[in-house]
Design goal:
The structure is a single chain. By secondary structure, the protein is an all-alpha fold. The chain folds into two domains: 3-417, no CATH class; 426-455. It has helices at residues 3-29, 34-37, 41-54, 62-78, 85-97, 101-108, 111-137, 172-193, 198-215, 218-237, 242-262, 264-279, 282-301, 317-324, 335-371, 376-390, 396-417, 431-454. Helix 7 (111-137) crosses helix 8, helix 8 runs parallel beside helix 17 (396-417) and helix 15 runs antiparallel to helix 16. Residues 442-455 have a biased composition (Basic and acidic residues).
């Protein structure tokens, strides 16, 4: 690839590192710039698009046209509602700005970039876990648990006097997304890819278990469980990867028993997680029904939303702060409910359909790669697919992980597809065989030429 593609890759890497570390900047290093850092990845995305257009690698597809037209219509319709320009611009960037990145990434990233990003995620896991343990041990008023802008007591409460660990992220939602994404790369390695050092993969299993245990987050548990559940599907469909699945299961059991026996804080974390599940109504009421309620609320908002909606950004926490001074979800926490109330039934449904269509494109690419024997794209769909369709894009970290994970899934599938394997019935020729065949072919052609000249 040319130098401009190298620059594009560097910018995507910068997006990656800011996604992982911008929370640390907002909480501890430069809290006074917290508001500006909230959208620090936006100008990077704009530059990526400008370079991609100049170099002819920006995706020109019906889906991109759909995105641009819908963004323009939603922007204009916003002024039929509340019509605050700053809120509308924020809502426009939340809903639309980062979506094309999903399709730019596979056009410029190499397979080596995907591998190295997985390595970075795994290498970061142990320090991230240690930081999460420290946050779990510290009290709600501790410096370790400040919120964005250095706000004392700015993290969410879990149970038993503990807060939900946030790691290097502004809030626990970022840690949950990070753990799910890292699990996808870890499982790809353990199920037979053998991409990373063995010591790193094996130590990542107990580190992952400990991080989930002290997170105090049901979302973290469910997100990682979704990725892990794909192991059963993969192992049953591809017996060759059963050995890796068994190794992963054994490592998980050993890690669980060892942590419970030797690490008291893990046992305490599990107790907090159990209390959170029980106080929230258990798995059925706290998880399944809550998830279903988001869709029920979205359906109910169809009859209440104005035809053209209340305006982009009104339902985000940033929009609410700009309008009323209070950071809250003014239109409900469900993403689809927010979208319909902001954009109205028609434009809102078109936007929801756009995100679902993007997810279907990513799933199709992942399944194609899976049929060719590659499982990483499918695991990445498990890590970020739900957020791409229904994640809270008003929350910048959730938005960033949703589009970046989808872009990684397409990159992993597309880069691998450039290599066309030989059919199974055709053995791979060895170097000596190639040389012998070459000499034989040359001798036969020379002998035929001499016979023709003799005639």
């Amino acid at each position: 690839m040319n130098r401009s593609h190298d620059n594009l890759r560097r910018l995507i890497w910068l997006y990656f590192w800011l996604l992982l570390l911008e929370g640390a900047l907002r909480k501890w290093l430069v809290p006074g710039l917290s508001n500006a850092l909230l959208i620090v990845r936006d100008p990077i995305v704009v530059v990526i698009y400008a370079l991609a257009i100049r170099e002819g690698v920006f995706p020109a597809s019906g889906m991109m046209l759909w995105t641009v037209i819908l963004a323009a219509l939603s922007f204009m319709a916003s002024f039929a509602g509340i019509g605050d320009l700053a809120v509308t611009i924020y809502g426009l960037r939340a809903d639309f700005l980062h979506l094309p990145l999903v399709f730019v990434m596979p056009r410029v990233l190499r397979g080596e970039d995907v591998r190295r990003m997985g390595l970075a995620l795994l290498a970061l896991l142990i320090p991230m876990t240690l930081l999460s343990v420290k946050q779990f041990q510290a009290g709600p008023k501790s410096w370790w648990n400040v919120g964005a802008g250095g706000e004392i007591g700015g993290q969410l409460y879990a149970a038993a006097g503990k807060v939900r660990a946030s790691g290097t992220f502004s809030f626990v939602t970022g840690l949950s997304c990070y753990l799910a994404l890292t699990t996808a790369f870890l499982l790809d390695d353990l199920l037979g890819r053998r991409t990373y050092p063995r010591w790193l993969s094996y130590t990542a299993v107990p580190a992952m278990a400990l991080a989930i245990g002290v997170s105090g987050s049901r979302t973290a548990v469910i997100s990682v469980a979704i990725v892990c559940s794909l192991v059963l599907y993969i192992a049953l469909r591809r017996p060759a990867q059963m050995r890796g699945a068994v190794i992963f299961l054994l490592l998980g059991l050993i890690a669980g028993v060892g942590l419970t026996t030797l690490v008291p804080i893990f046992k305490e974390g599990v107790a907090v997680q159990h209390e959170r599940f029980e106080s929230g109504g258990g798995m059925e009421q706290g998880i399944v029904m809550r998830f279903a309620q988001d869709f029920i609320a979205a359906g109910g908002s169809l009859s209440r939303a104005p035809v053209l909606g209340l305006g982009l950004g009104v339902g985000t926490s940033v929009g609410a702060r700009l309008l009323s001074g209070q950071a809250e979800f003014a239109l409900g926490e469900g993403e689809w409910q927010r979208v319909i109330m902001e954009s109205g039934g028609t434009l809102g449904a078109a936007y929801i359909a756009l995100r679902c269509a993007m997810l279907l494109v990513v799933i199709a690419a992942a399944l194609k790669a899976y049929r060719a024997g590659r499982i990483l794209p499918l695991l990445l769909v498990g890590a970020g697919g739900l957020d791409l369709a229904n994640g809270q894009f008003g929350q910048p970290t959730t938005l960033g992980f949703a589009v970046f994970t989808a872009g990684l899934a397409l990159s992993a599938a597309q880069q691998e597809d450039q290599v066309t394997p030989l059919p199974r019935s055709q053995p791979v020729p060895q170097p000596a065989e190639v040389a012998i065949r070459g000499r034989s072919s040359y001798a036969e052609r020379l002998h035929g030429k001499r016979e023709e000249e003799a005639r």
